Structures are given as structure tokens and as C-alpha cells.
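Reviewer 2 asked us to include a model.

Predict the structure of this chain.
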Amino acid sequence: MRALTWAVLIVGLLYCGYWFVGARSAERAVLQAIAEGEARGLVISHQGVSLAGFPNRFDLTLTQPEVSRPETGLGWRAPFAQVLALSYAPWNLIAALPNEQTVVLPGQEITVGSTRMQASLFLRPRPNLPLNDFKWVAEGASLRSNAGWSLGFSSANLSLVGEGRGAGVQAALRVLDLVPDQDVAAGLTGAGLPAAIGRIDALADVTLDRPLALLDAPPRVEAIALREVHLDWGPVKVTGAGDLRADAAGQAEGVINLRIAGWRTAFEAARVAGVLPERMGVAVHSVLEHLASRSGDPDSIDLPLVMQQGRM
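Predicted model (C-alpha cells):
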């Protein structure tokens, strides 16, 4: 019993030492990441870094973080940002964001509200920490711009899976019950569309020039195989698939084939909302009727989007 007691005490002391060493390493890693971001032209400020969670977790909190890139007019700020990790698997991270944050775009600021916004980042324990799996989820979200527009959605999910895919990832996106700006929704009244877009889905295989890793420079996208995309907005159903590659200038080249069911409702909504100028209505309707006659279904049109030499 005496030997067992001493063994438990020694292991406990070693684990405590490991936690404090790991906590200091995590704090140094955050400060190093901030310094590297500033070296790349970012302006980063915060009101302090704190660590808690002893002994099972590393809970790192950044108070009042603010990030901007002055030459582009882009930025982000929030009351806090929190990253959590189990002390025995610190390469698996969970990030929690506050219920309100601000995204800065050229000429406007967008207040992002949500009832829940979290992300998980599972890495492989290698020196450069390559991506294994990334997931982001937001619920009860709203976006309000000081430029006068707003939108909201009940939930959104984004995932990137990199394990076993070499220099590439599989990307999946889903948005449910997307409510457009009130002015847009009011303009669509009577056009046959509901107030909310029921579902937006996309699934794609993304080929990169090198594997995605946390400690490496961001890779470049070489190709995107869009396996499927769906949009359900009442009677309007959009599906699509296609392949894109980066040309020598890094611009997309390829074709995405779309099928739009319920195109007459979509056309009427575009006309009522003022997206389609009245003087072009007859000509556009004639073109769409011709496309529908070639699709085999008078209520559907097949629309190939060709991207070439920087144009679509």
C-alpha cells in the first residue's frame, strides 16, 4: 500500500507538472500566432489571455479580440473567443464564440447574433498538425448590417474532412430556413414564394496543392468537384453539379450544370422584386420558355454555367 500510494503521488505530481507546462505552451502558441498574423499584415488586439480547466482541460479565453486588415477594409471583433481542449488530447480543439460579434466589410459593419455558435477542429498529432476534421455550427442566427439589410436562419452547418484524402478535403454545407431581408420578402409577396428558403445544401471535393495543416501556410485551391447542390424555396427547386479547375491566373474554369424546377415562379418573383428590369421581361421569358422546351419538362430549365477566361 505504501508503494502504491507513492506511485499515485508521483504520477499525480507528474500530471500536474504536465498541465502547467502545457498551459504555458498553449499561451505561448497563441501569442506566437498573433505575432505571425501581424507579420502578414493583420492588426490584432485583445485585452488579455487566460487559461483554466485544471486538471482535465485547457480552457483558453481571449478577451475582446479584434482582427483587421486595413488595406482590404475587412475585420472582426467580439467580446471574447474561447478555445477548449482535453489535456490528454490537445490537438483536438473546440471553439466557442459569443452570442453577438461584429464582422467589418468595406463600407459596412454586420452584427452577427446567434443562440449558439461553435466549431470543432480535430487535428492529427504530427509536427505541422494536419487537418483530420473540422465542423462549424450556428443556430438561431441573424445578420444585421448598418447598410440597412438583414437576414437570418434557423441553423447552418459546415464541415471539412481531410483524413485519408491527401492534398484535398471534402466540404459540406447546409443552411435551413434562411429568411431574406424584410424588404426583399415584402417584394416577393404574391409571387408564390414562401418567406423563407427551406434548405440550401452543397457537397464538394476540393483539391489543394498541399495538405491543409494548422501550422503550414494556407494551401491553394486547384480544383473543385461540386458533387451536388440543392436549393428548396417552396415551388422552386434548384439542383446542380459540375467541375471547376484553377487556370494559370488562379481563376475558375469549368461548367456547373443547374436544373431549375418551378422556373416560372422564380421568374415572376424576380420580376416582382425588381431584379429583372421590366423592359427585359418579355425577352427573358421567351429565352426561358425555349430552354424549358429543350429540357423535356415545361416547368424546368437546364442551365449550364460556363466559366472561362475570368468570365461566367
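The first helix runs from residue 2 to 39. The helical segments are 2-39, 182-187, 263-272, 281-295. We have added this to the supplementary material.
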